Task: structure prediction
Amino acid sequence: MTMKLVALLSAAAILGISTTTTATAFITPKPSVAVTSTTTALDATIAVFGASGLTAQECIYQALKDGDKVVGLTRNPSKLVIPKGSGGVDADKPLVDSNLTVIAGDVTNPADVAKVFENDIDGVIVALGGKTSDVGDTMLTVGTNNIMSAMKQKGVKRIAVVTSIGAGNSKDQAPFAFKILMMTVMKKIFTDKNNQEKAVQESGLEYCIVRPGGLTVEKPTGVINVIDGEAGSIPRADVAQFCLEAVKDVNFPYVGQTPCISSVGGTSWVKDRSKAARGEQ
Ligand SMILES: NC(=O)c1ccc[n+]([C@@H]2O[C@H](COP(=O)([O-])OP(=O)(O)OC[C@H]3O[C@@H](n4cnc5c(N)ncnc54)[C@H](OP(=O)(O)O)[C@@H]3O)[C@@H](O)[C@H]2O)c1
Ligand SMILES: *[C@@H]1O[C@H](CO)[C@@H](O)[C@H](O)[C@H]1NC(C)=O
Result:
C-alpha cells in the first residue's frame, strides 16, 4: 500500500464561535496545502455503507479525490452519482472510478457485508438511513452490528457512524421542532438510531459517532463546528469531510466520542434540497 503524509489538522484553527452555544470550529486545509503535520494517515482503502446515500456519495467522491480507494455497499448501485455539494459541474453523473468498487447488497445480510471485507479495509464509514417503511425497524442496528462483527474478524479498528442530532444523550441538542418529529413520525427511526449508537459505543472499536444537524446538499463550507448546545444545519459535504478525518487521522480528537456537528452556530434549521437531489418531489 502506498503511504503518504496527510496534513489533516495541522492548519486546524480553534475558534470560539459563540451564539447561544459553545462551538469549536475546524478549518480544514485543502489537500494542496498539506505539507508538514504531526499526523500521518494512509492512502487508505475505505469501506462506505449506504453508498448510494447523499452523505455516503460525498464520502466516496471526496475519498477518491484524495487518492484513497473505496469499497461501497448499497442495494442500488445505479443510484450512485457524483454529489451536488462537491461535484460541481459533474454533479449527478454516474460515479465511476478505477479506485471504486461498488457491491450490490443488503447490509442486514452478513454475507453481503463479508463481500466488502474481502478487500483490505483500513477504515469504515456507516452512512445508512432511509424511511422505516422502506428499510425496516432495525436496519441501522442489525446492519451496523454485521459491519462491526466483520471488522473484528478482520482486525479493522476505525469506524465513523453518521447518526443524528437528537440521538442518544444529545436529545436536548435538537431544536424544538425536530424534537417533536423525533417523538412522533421519526420515533421508530430514533429507536433504531439509539440502539445503533449503543452497539457502537459498546463495540470496543475506535469509533466516532457523528451526529449532524439538519443536512443540506450545499457546497462544502470547510467549517465544521462541534456544538455543545443546539445544533444548526450542515452540508453533507462537510459531514463527509469530518467522517473521512475520523477514519484516516490516527490522532483524530473525537475517537470514542459522539460529537454533534453543524456548520452554523446556533439553532437555525435550514430546509434542505435532499429530496430534489434524490429526484423526489
Ligand atoms: N435529513 C437530515 O436533515 C438529517 C439530519 C441528521 C441526521 N440525518 C441522518 O444522516 C444519515 C445520512 O442521511 P442521508 O440523507 O445522507 O442518507 P440517505 O440519502 O437517506 O442514504 C441512506 C442510504 O442507506 C442505504 N441503505 C438503506 N438500507 C440499506 C440496506 N438494507 N443495505 C444497504 N444500504 C442501505 C440506502 O441505499 P439503498 O437504498 O441504495 O440500499 C441509502 O442510499 C441518515 O442516518 C439520516 O437519518 C439526517
Ligand atoms: C487510484 O489511487 C492511486 C493511489 O492509491 C492513485 O495513484 C491513482 O491515480 C488513482 N486512480 C485514479 C483513477 O484516480
Summary: Residues 2, 43, 67, 69, 97-99 surround 2-acetamido-2-deoxy-beta-D-glucopyranose (ligand 2) (CB under 6 Å). Confidence is low (pLDDT under 50) at residues 1-40.
